Amino acid sequence: MGLFSSKCDNCGSTEHSTSDCPHGLLSSKCAKCGSVDHSTSDCPHGIFSTKCSKCGSTEHSSSDCPHGIFSTKCAKCGSTEHSTSDCPHGVFSSRCSKCGSKNHSTADCPQGMLGKSAMTTILETSSSDSSSNEGGCVKIIGWLIGIGILVFVVVWLAVNVVLPITLLNSALALTVLALVFKKYKALFASLALVGGGYLLIDVTNGWLSDIFVEKVVKNTDWISAFVYLNAAAIGLSTWILIQPIWLKTKQMELANKWKRLLIRGAIILLTIIATVVAPVFYHSVQNPFTQKVIHNQTSPHPQTKNQNNETENGDSRIQSTMIENQIIVDTYIGTIGIKDFKLCIEKVDSVNVEGYNVTGKNKRPVKGRIVDIRTEANELGGNYAIFKINLTEPGDDKWDGEFNIELWISDNDRHGNGSWKSYNGKLERQIVIKDRLNE
Fold first, then answer.
1. Hey, which residues does 353 pair with through a beta bridge?
2. Are the C-beta atoms of residues 221 and 289 closer than 8 Å to each other?
3. Which CATH entry fits the domain spanning 305-436: 2.60.40, 1.25.40, 2.40.128, 2.130.10?
4. Count of alpha carbons within 13 Å of 67, Cβ hemisphere only?
5. Helices 170-180, 185-205: crossing angle, 10 deg rounding
6. What's the whole-model pTM score?
7. For 102-158, what is each residue's pLDDT tens digit?
8. Is residue 6 within 8 Å of residue 116, measured between CB atoms?
9. Rounded mean pLDDT of the chain?
10. What are the b/e assignments for 359-387, b being 16+ CB within 10 Å?
């Protein structure tokens, strides 16, 4: 082999050069055991063996195995061709640095100046370092992304789920603690009443309750359930606090019978009031909590050219008819937030509108004007006449405000959507018109 050869060109062995190959022209390995390092005629194995029965080497027979009783390979480099005591490698090497063979030292290598193993080792080392660096960067980026996602999920759950549920149901949780830890029942019961008060303030102003509904459950029935569960807890906590007074009435003399009955009646009444105040407040107070989800009506299908022509030809006639025949004079029902809402348009004079609205049990007069009229095709092949109306309340109540509503009217359907905002800017609610009131 030349200066830069790394193996025998004939059989591929690293243990001899091409000029010293023991094989003939037409053979490249021992026909008996398959070794490339000796010819068939020099095979050390007997008739029925092809390798050393002790260490598995094809280069010596079992009787010539260099290993001791308890070893099968060199303890230093792992070769089966020599014993540990005859290892040709130095203290810090375990194979030839030129060709990678374990059976000779670098100094005795029969290969050229730069063996294949040396070049391969250099390239593999360089590639390994590069791959290691790239793999390390990828792992770090992956970890950072994973940690970022985890932190985001934890914070999102804490802010939008855990915190709202915990605070909105604090009356219920504290009442349970009052029943479990009887030594501190008065403290926990008192805190439960504070928690119930927070619940009513929150649902009235739409703080955590608004976040929980809008971003998590998309259903205001959850807040209603919270109100009723905590109302029962408030009643129970009230009873826990006034129970000692009830027990003292048992010690009153018979002469004070009426006084005892009066005190017990007051205790029962107070417990009932504490239980029902939350639901009553929740359903009757003006402009209570509402989810801030804008009602999206189904978009009309795009009009074809013929439909556009028909619509253009009939627009003026439809608009004129709508106003002249007072077709928007009607009573519409729906919701404002989670409250029942009724809008009654009693009078239309050209574009001027008058009527009243009922939110819960609160009735307020309104007046305003039609600010826009347009038409859209509906799914049944007809047209909606869409009236955009601005209405205002008188302003003599602190919760009066302004309505902006769109009414979608066709021959067989009436619906709409819009918003209401108080004059003081503290409250804003979404409105959904679902139908007309059939009286």
1. 348, 368
2. no
3. 2.40.128
4. 21
5. 170
6. 0.41
7. 777 777 787 665 544 444 554 555 555 555 566 678 888 989 999 999 999 999 999
8. yes
9. 80
10. bbeeebebbbebeebebbbbeeeebbbbb
